[in-house]
């Protein structure tokens, strides 16, 4: 039996340029008039980053984007792709590891965009060190980048965000991991908790806060931290037995940023191909008797 895949659907060429959206290329208008800052949205290497893909989708859906990154060339690459495709984007050069730089970046983004209705806290970094194998300085550094930066950016954005605005935090299925890379996982678990607390606090003023929990995608982040030989076991660890891409994450973030999700807040949406525990061992069920 032929496998039903997105690649088999007309108009979706998954093997085309990996830096272009393969799901709804160039479509939509969900973000018309919206102004969104995405942290860590610079593009590095040949594979799309999550922040890059989110910035591209927001722009292709009519929104304007502040592309924040500490790497000026990476930010410019994302901006160039958006502008070439007919969208609106500006680079915002900032290192988000201090509250002061986050504040300046948010103000600058709002000036460039003429206001702010959306914020994506995507920036992250990690390594495979165990929880007691890192120095106190490194632990603080990982917490600062992966958790505190989101709190800082959000706290500076809130006074500027009108009712109807949306904040999306990018977490990881690593929140349930208990092995290598624990400092990153601890920070991401905090980010999910922060999502729920911020949603509760900001709900009465009409600001929504949600989180996308990223699964085993193959993108610039994974490629930089992982050997290719882990790809097959990662694929097998999902219910759908497939690897995702940054575009799969970006479409979920797009939904959460848009009016389409206007009655949704405080949610942690796992975009992970389905957790392995939902796939019982044994042959596939292809028909139901009687
Ligand atoms: N790809 C995966 O397998 C995977 C899995 C789980 C979660 N995630 C999540 O996806 C998100 C990021 O993925 P990505 O693909 O965009 O990563 P990426 O590595 O492609 O991009 C991260 C960007 O952040 C920038 N950056 C790093 N430190 C910074 C700082 N201090 N200030 C400003 N910019 C800084 C980098 O220059 C880079 O451009 C993260 O939240 C990550 O935890 C990814």
Quick overview of this protein structure:
This protein is of the alpha/beta class and 290 residues long. Helices cover 37% and strands 13% of the residues. Residues 40, 42, 44, 49-51, 69-71, 74, 94-97, 122-125, 145, 170, 172, 214, 217, 219-222, 246 line the site of nicotinamide-adenine-dinucleotide (NAD).
Description of the molecule:
There is one protein chain. 37% of the residues lie in helices and 13% in strands. It is α/β, with parallel strands linked by helices. The chain has one domain (31-275): NAD(P)-binding Rossmann-like Domain (Rossmann fold, 3-Layer(aba) Sandwich). The chain has a seven-stranded parallel β-sheet with strand order 3-2-1-4-5-6-7, with helices on both faces. Helix 1 packs across helix 8 (246-257). The chain is globular and about 50 Å long. Mean pLDDT is 90; it is low at 1-14. The structure holds nicotinamide-adenine-dinucleotide. Nicotinamide-adenine-dinucleotide is lined by residues 40, 42, 44, 49-51, 69-71, 74, 94-97, 122-125, 145, 170, 172, 214, 217, 219-222, 246.
Q: Which blocks of ≥5 consecutive residues have pLDDT under 50?
A: 1-14
* Beta-strand content: 5-15%
- Give the CATH level 1 class: Alpha Beta
Q: What small molecules are bound in this structure?
A: nicotinamide-adenine-dinucleotide
- CATH superfamily annotation: NAD(P)-binding Rossmann-like Domain
Q: Any idea what the CATH architecture is?
A: 3-Layer(aba) Sandwich
CATH topology: Rossmann fold
Q: What is the ordering of alpha helices and beta strands?
A: EHEHEHEHEHEHHHE
Helicity range of the residues? 25-40%
């Amino acid at each position: 039996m032929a496998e039903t895949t997105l690649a088999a659907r007309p108009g979706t060429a998954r093997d085309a340029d990996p830096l272009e959206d393969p799901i709804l290329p160039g479509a939509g208008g969900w973000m018309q008039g919206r102004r969104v800052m995405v942290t860590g949205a610079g593009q590095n290497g040949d594979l799309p980053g999550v922040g890059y893909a989110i910035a591209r989708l927001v722009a292709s859906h009519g929104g304007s984007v502040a592309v924040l990154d500490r790497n000026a060339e990476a930010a410019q690459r994302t901006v160039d792709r958006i502008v070439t495709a007919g969208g609106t984007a500006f680079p915002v050069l900032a290192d988000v590891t201090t509250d002061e730089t986050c504040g300046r970046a948010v103000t600058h983004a709002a000036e460039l965009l003429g206001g702010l209705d959306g914020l994506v806290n995507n920036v992250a970094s990690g390594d495979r060190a165990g929880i007691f194998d890192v120095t106190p300085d490194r632990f603080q550094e990982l917490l600062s980048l992966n958790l505190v930066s989101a709190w800082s950016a959000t706290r500076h954005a809130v006074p500027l965000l009108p009712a109807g605005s949306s904040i999306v935090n990018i977490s990881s299925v690593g929140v349930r991991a208990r092995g290598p890379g624990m400092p990153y996982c601890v920070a991401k678990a905090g980010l999910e908790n922060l999502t729920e607390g911020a949603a509760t606090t900001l709900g009465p003023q009409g600001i929504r806060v949600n989180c996308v929990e990223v699964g085993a995608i193959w993108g610039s982040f994974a490629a930089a931290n992982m050997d290719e030989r882990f790809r097959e076991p990662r694929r097998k660890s999902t219910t759908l037995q497939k690897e995702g891409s940054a575009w799969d994450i970006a479409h979920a973030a797009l939904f959460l940023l848009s009016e389409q999700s206007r009655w949704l807040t405080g949610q942690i949406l796992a975009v992970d191909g389905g957790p392995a525990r939902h796939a019982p061992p044994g042959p596939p069920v292809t028909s139901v008797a009687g």
